[in-house]
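Async update (no meeting this week)

Hi team, since we skipped the sync, here's where things stand on the single-chain job. The sequence we agreed to prioritize is pasted below, unchanged from the tracker. I ran it this morning and attached the output directly underneath so nobody has to dig for it. Comments welcome in thread, and please keep replies under the output.
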Amino acid sequence: MNREVRNIEYTVHELAKLAGVTSRTLRYYDEIGLLKPARLSDAGYRLYGPREVDLLQQILFYRELGVDLETIKQIVHSPEFDELEALRQHRQQLLEKRRHLDALIASVEKTIIAKEGGITMSDKEKFAAFKERLIEENERKYGEEIRQKYGDEQVDRSNNRLRNMTKEQFDEAERLGKEVLEVLKEAMQDGDPAGEKAQRAADLHRQWLCFWWDHYSKEAHAGLAHMYVEDERFKAHYDQVHPGAAEFLKEAILIYTGMKK
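Output:
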């Protein structure tokens, strides 16, 4: 009986229904070489077996964690890929995600009760709720890119630093963030990324980063500067100061960190 269960095959439509995805998604996964069918039927239809079902599960786990398809392909088709170890990692990451969601839900529920007059939230509780919403917003906007670049562990540590910040520390980080933009605007008028004002902007940016990172490195700082130019959303944030500000800040940081080639 177990042998019969293990030998079952699914069509595209059947597997899509089983996994909660669309048939079009499975066809696309086939086209890009991410998930190939076990074989084609005599009529030319894709058929998927137990191995493909297990692989699809892994793919969907990674997608839930925000990993892009090209990276997933490299991971699951690597000769070193360990399915059991991957499942353990998925479990740990999902538990962390659940803890974050539980905290967010609890803070929202408490806020609702407070608004309805049931309880009075302390400033500390209000700030905790605000930080959870900020983490959720950052994950939604930038989570996939920063997790891909720096890894889940580093991003989770950064989120925990935010959770543990006092109101005074958060206000200081916000002040530094604004000062970076102000000094960057002044530096652009001089037009020299190696100039005194530009290098001050880079140093202020380092100070700001240290509120979010538990470990600073020049290499990581330079890598972030590159991402500011490569990602349109980060680029737009700095270019609001002046067109080309993201590129100018990148050059200033590369000089500051000694990573300028």
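Quick observations from my side:
The chain is about 75% helix and 5% strand.
The beta strands are 10-11, 39-40, 46-48.
Reply here if anything looks off.
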